[in-house]
Amino acid sequence: MPTFRPCNRHRCVGRNHGGAGQNPSLRLPPAAFGDAWDDDNDAPGGHNGCDTRDDILNRDLTDKTYVSIKRCPDAVATGTLHDPYTNATIHFQRGARVGQSVQIDHIVPLALAWDMGAYNWPYPQRLRFANDPANLLAVSGQANEDKADSQPALWMPPNTAFWCQYAVQYVAVLRGYALPVDQPSADVLHRAAATCPPDNPQREQTRNPPNAAVNVRFCVCSPSLGVRVGQRVLAHAGAVVEAAERVHVLGG
């Protein structure tokens, strides 16, 4: 496991994700992806009066109460997280220390994305990526710290029941932002896809524009995947594998 703290606040300068695209001459500047959770961005949910962290807490937590704060008139004060990474149930209470039990994870980490090509993006695209709900999940703080900026070859959720959905969302983000993946991580994503249920033609298909936010728990889908959108709905293994094969594999 990585030993440094995660880039939970967009301020990562460490390297331990094993990215094959890593270029030591292109070190991640502290503000490369903008200020943490800035609402002034063009991602879905931007400019809505609440910062991105509050948007994701509101999307992913249940049994919520709210409080008005400076950066959000309806910020989540308390709630319950059914953590997809560990399958634990975590009580959230807003506060400097208590609130860290629930953190917001970038499924494709910022530092990894930087090394894999985001260093060449214009600033507005990096800001969008950092705040795109399609790449964000509320998760256990400890799991987020364990993951840090690791890619799938180095870290997968301890909850193996979530591997299918993790692969779906990871691949959707890679394709949506034209990011490559190295061969070891591509292999892991394929194995994760093998845990998905078989295709069911009776399931309704719902397509969404690229990088669109889907306000359903643990399911953010890309049109290239052709999967049904719904609460805790798992994707079709064939669709994940097909999409993963269309992601550029470094050295492949």
Q: What's a concise summary of this model?
A:
By secondary structure, the chain is α+β, with helices and mostly antiparallel strands.
Word description of this protein:
The protein has 252 residues and is α+β, with helices and mostly antiparallel strands. It has a domain of 147 residues. It is built from seven helices and seven strands; from the N terminus they run H-E-E-E-E-H-H-E-H-H-E-H-H-E. The strands form three sheets. It has a three-stranded antiparallel β-sheet, with helices on one face. A two-stranded antiparallel ribbon has the order 4-5. The longest helix has 14 residues.
Features:
7 strands; single chain; two-stranded antiparallel ribbon; 3-stranded antiparallel β-sheet; 252 residues; 7 helices
